Amino acid sequence: MSDEVEPKQRPLDVLHVFSSFAVGGAQVRFAALANHFGDAVRHRIVAMDGNRDARVLLNPELNVLFPKVGLLRHDTLGNFTRIRRYMDLYPPDVLITSNWGSIDWAIARRRNGPRHVHMEDGFGPDERDRQLFRRVLTRWVVLDKSQIILPSRTVELIARKKWRLPAGNLHYIPNGVDAARFAAAKPAVLPQGGEGPVFGTVTALRAEKNLPRLLEAFAIVRKAMPARLVIVGDGPLRAKLKTRAAKLGISGSVHFAGPSAAPEKYYACFDVFVLSSDTEQMPLCVLEAGAAGLPVAATDVGDMRVIVAPENAPYLVARDTAKLAEAMLALIKDPDAARRIGAANRALVARDFTQDAMFEKHWALWRGPQNDEDDE
Asked: Are strands 94-98 and 12-18 parallel, antiparallel or unpaired?
């Protein structure tokens, strides 16, 4: 019997590019993946806007670097040169780009660049209602030989029909959550003041989330009954949203909780989860709400009808403030129905949107094709 110790395999070197590494759904998913894979991966993370707030979600023991590439605003051609130079000097095993904001890296790597995986979660306000021709053409040209991860059936259809990318390169991998974590969470302690049921949302405070719609819908609810609203997350619109709440006369009933590395404790406080977005595809927060056993009042965008139970479908509404308020009130006024809907959402998430399935499929694409000798 040999006493030799098998040498430890070199970690996979992955270069991730985000338009921003602020806390959001894509960053929360990435953190779950990175924490799960542990020391099997060496991560390099580039945030195009310099925001690295989501690093708090990462296990501090991970092998993570935030390299400085020296990119400059409004210098597209110069940045292509800087990106190529960086990847030539420090070639990764795989480049993983995230959404349109990282497309410059996908363009730059086409000249003898590394293996490429592209994540496409959805669209910002400028592509809420229609695809922009220049972006469609760019994706068709640049991503034709890349592997594309699509967590949404809606985006998968767009990638096939409008971007005309090869069907064999498209991989539908729905987001997954740790259902047990959200089901067993202890509630956060909310600030004193206010009464009534708690409506809540967990989201980045950005334009496409249309949080003014949520505030206005909540103001309608407050005229009908006492209630509270908790908004978990941060972003560039925080100050404006606080001002809007004050003008609506609801400041005393709205709590801006800020970002949280443990959002499950807030879901445990909510009676109804609310999503007011203009554009989404497969919002992770709705899966988390389902795992927490919550009913959802939301705008009917993206894959919403896939990620909530059929019983919840009547509470998915048009992008309209009054209709969203009606859905919020209807769920609160029928607590028995709300409980049944919450239980159905929990069962759906536990069955169809597990983290383990997500981990396995992402790892296969991160790792890429393996030589036969690797498996001996």
From this structure: parallel
Please write the tens of the pLDDT for every residue from 126-153. 887 888 999 999 999 999 999 999 999 9
Q: Which of 211, 259, 237 is nearest to 52 (CA)?
A: 259
d(CA 206, CA 123): 12
Q: What burial class does residue 299 get, using C-beta atoms within 10 Å of its C-beta: 0-12 exposed, 13-18 middle, 19+ buried?
A: buried
pTM of the model: 0.86
DSSP label of 137 = H
CA distances from 345 to 19, 81, 288 (A): 32, 48, 10
Q: Mean pLDDT over all residues of the chain? A: 92
Domains 12-176+355-369 and 179-352 share a fold: yes
The domain segmentation of the chain, as residue ranges, is 12-176+355-369, 179-352
Right CATH number for 179-352 from 3.90.960.10, 3.40.30.10, 3.40.50.300, 3.40.50.2000? Answer: 3.40.50.2000
Rg (CA), the chain: 22
Top-tier CATH class for 12-176+355-369: alpha beta
DSSP letter for each residue of 148-192? EEES-HHHHHHHHHTS---GGGEEE----B-HHHHHTPPPP-PPS
Strand pairing of 254-258 and 228-232?
parallel
The Cβ of residue 8 has, within 10 Å, a number of other Cβ atoms equal to: 7
